[in-house]
């Protein structure tokens, strides 16, 4: 057996509904029995079904006849080990399409990547797209080690930051950088604000080499119109879309505005959507759909701007927030996203309106046929890894999307954005066995996807709700065991 990169996970008593399942170990043939299944393609739940997992893949989904089951006549697939999912839901593993794998914050170590990886697994994330790693080769080496099973963590796709390592000043530089990333083994490329000629060159080269481009547009020369023209795979966050819909081409900043002052930047970002012309915006969204430009909005990462107190007092902070991450969140101009200096109720009011308009644009985009994905951008602005993605799903529901569509955004849609729609993101025979076993009904309450198992009252009775198992590439991880290990890491870091 390969030597584990991370510390051994703490053993915990597993449910009596399991038979032969070992936390963190793949079995030759695992059967999940009596599950209610949500496929990940937006279709309604169905069940009961037995799901068979072999060699990291889903090899069978047997729909069970309730009458035959009652009579004891149902033909059931055999398995070496089983999990009884009676009364529970099975979903595809979540895909985090916008994340940053971090081992330290504010110059303080988090003890390697174990904390990050376990938080993602504990929140049901089985695939991550790392966007913008400064250390390209380090992230790629980590991807290869994870693929070999050398440590517990989600599947990794690496989109290195285009502007890292050296300045890009010419179109020849841009093309050379794309070729370098391809040779390095990158899965795609992440760009930020950039001049139009450089963007055109890099995207042309990336298309030739089969590297999809994710664009975090800034307040720059380029907007969503350029993503449409050059064939960007996904727009990250939302800058660039309302900018493209402002009639005179630029938001009306005050004369003392400084984009590099993040308090300025985020304060005025909260007033951007109200300046977009609805008719022009409609044209932008229509053109995005026609050009197959997807949208990964990361609604969660700006939520502190509209409700700072809620962001600072999230219930999981007490047990699971690493002190180095907590320190990074404190207002400090030296830390990206730690911009709450002089933040006011007026700022929050503008941001509340910003969210209403932003969410309306997302609804319109999907109605037109656009592909919306999910990412949390955690490690910034009071968002913890993994927890931020579940919160992202809650915000998609607030935006007006039906829960089945919200789940599709974070599974099937994300797989399509990553170019992996025939491999992951669905509960389907032949796909990777990335599965979540949930106590509670996520179609009624998305909070049941959080790892914190909670006792809730329903119809006068106590019921448990919370994520119980994350199965990543066929390996079952018991979520309470993961959470206990995360707490152990945090408790150790808090000691003087």
Protein architecture, described:
The chain is globular. It contains 15 helices and 19 strands. Residues 1-14 have low confidence and may be disordered. By secondary structure, it is an alpha/beta fold. The two termini are 36 Å apart. The protein has helices spanning 66-71, 114-122, 136-147, 171-184, 196-209, 224-230, 262-269, 278-290, 308-312, 317-320, 323-329, 345-367, 387-398, 403-417, 479-494; strands at 18-19, 30-37, 46-54, 57-63, 81-84, 89-92, 94-99, 104-105, 108-109, 125-131, 155-159, 189-191, 213-215, 234-236, 294-296, 435-439, 454-458, 461-472, 475-478. Strands 1, 2, 3, 4, 5, 6, 16, 17, 18 and 19 form a ten-stranded mixed β-sheet that branches. Helix 2 (114-122) runs antiparallel to helix 15, helix 4 runs parallel beside helix 5 and helix 6 runs parallel beside helix 8. 33% of the residues lie in helices and 19% in strands. A hairpin with a 2-residue loop joins strand 18 (461-472) and strand 19. It folds into two domains: 18-91 and 428-494, Urease, subunit C, domain 1, CATH 2.30.40.10; 94-417, TIM Barrel.
**How far is it from the N-terminal to the C-terminal residue, by CA?**
36 Å
What is the molecular shape? globular
**Tally of strands:** 19
Task: Please give the CATH class of the largest domain.
Answer: Alpha Beta
Query: Any guess at the CATH architecture of the largest domain?
Result: Alpha-Beta Barrel
* Stretches with pLDDT under 50, minimum 5 residues: 1-14
Helix amount? 25-40%
The largest β sheet comes out as: 10 strands, mixed
Helix-and-strand structural type:
alpha/beta
Number of helices: 15
Strand composition percent? 15-25%
- Overall structural domain count: 2
CATH topology of the largest domain: TIM Barrel
- Rounded Rg: 23 Å
Mean pLDDT: 92
